[in-house]
TrEMBL record:
This is Glycine/betaine ABC transporter substrate-binding protein. It comes from Pseudonocardia hydrocarbonoxydans. GO terms for cellular component: ATP-binding cassette (ABC) transporter complex. It comes from the Bacteria. InterPro entries: ABC_Gly_betaine_transp_sub-bd. The keyword NADP does not apply. Residues 42-303 form the ABC-type glycine betaine transport system substrate-binding domain. SUPFAM superfamilies: Periplasmic binding protein-like II (SSF53850).
Length: 307
């Protein structure tokens, strides 16, 4: 019988949710069960602290467990800046990643934009000891979002249209978006858009949605697969100059844990994921009964005949 170790809850507050149970300890502390080279230990699965990424981690974990692979689900960790060091030191073995932002994290000067170009470039900069598996067709990009009322009043359909208003408005998003190359610096460089202020909120969560809805911020960073865009009647502005590169979901795994079996299971998951599937799954997470990501993952895997 295999071991499926679950670490705490799947919905975490922003900040570093780093503790783990079942002997796992701090997922960013080296020397744990996921130490580099220990292929017999459970695969320690991390995720960023937003529901979609937690759900993808659950899908990976449950699919692997169903095939006899021991896994350990860690608490979500705030952002790439926090969890990537754990991948490097082996205290985290597997994360669901997004190609474009991962490329810019590893190579800030990268200029590739299309899905194929980004994936090819990314393969060339993945650090030793990590393996990039097959990318999925599923894509979740950052988007500059405004309310319908604001868009209508100012005749906005693109970020380019927004640029003349930027000196008069406040932008909202997660703290790291203010520094990332395709975040505020990219918007400024690409569109000449310098906002009057920046409000540090959450990663596509209720703080950002509420601030946009009540006018605390006039534009915000949300994900294109976020169901709150449609449910609130928000407008995701088009990005004609391609500030945001392709963002395909892709598993990033510790090479020591990337057995043929593990690769086969995860690549099969990637082959089944599409943007439409992500939107549907995010809609399930946002349902009135607020199911946990592990429940939504189990339901989807069962529908796919993988459990």
């Amino acid at each position: 019988m295999t071991t499926f170790l679950r670490v705490a809850g799947v919905v975490a507050a922003l900040g570093l949710a780093l503790s783990a149970c079942g002997g796992g300890g701090d997922p960013l502390a080296g020397g744990g069960t996921g130490e580099t080279g220990d292929a017999s230990a459970p695969i320690r699965i991390g995720s960023a602290a937003f529901p979609e990424n937690q759900l993808l981690g659950e899908i990976y974990g449950q699919a692997l467990e169903a095939q006899g692979v021991a896994v350990e689900i860690l608490q979500p960790i705030a952002s790439r800046e926090a969890y990537f060091p754990g991948l490097r030191d082996g205290s985290i073995d597997l994360v669901p990643e997004y190609t474009g932002v991962l490329l810019q994290y590893l190579e800030p000067a990268a200029t590739e934009k299309s899905a194929d170009e980004v994936y090819a470039a990314l393969q060339g900069v993945i650090p030793e000891g990590l393996t990039l598996l097959e990318r999925s067709d599923a894509e979740n990009k950052d988007a500059v979002v405004v309310t319908q009322e604001f868009a209508t009043a100012n005749n906005l359909t693109t970020i380019e249209d927004l640029a003349p208003l930027c000196p008069t408005i406040t932008f909202g998003g997660p703290p790291e978006f203010q520094e990332r190359p395709d975040g505020i610096p990219g918007i400024e460089a690409t569109y000449g858009c310098t906002f009057a202020g920046y409000s540090s909120l959450d990663v596509g969560g209720p703080l950002t949605v509420t601030a946009l809805r009540d006018g605390t911020v006039q534009a915000a960073d949300l994900f294109t697969t976020d169901p709150t865009i449609e449910s609130n009647g928000f407008v995701a502005l088009e990005d004609p100059l391609n500030n945001f590169a392709a963002q395909n979901v892709v598993p990033l795994v510790n090479t020591a844990k990337a057995s043929d079996q593990v690769q086969q299971v995860l690549n099969d998951i990637s082959s089944r994921l599409t943007t439409e599937v992500l939107i549907d799954l995010n809609g399930r997470l946002a349902a009135d009964d607020r199911p946990n990501p592990d429940t939504v993952a189990q339901d989807w895997l069962t529908e796919q005949g993988l459990l």
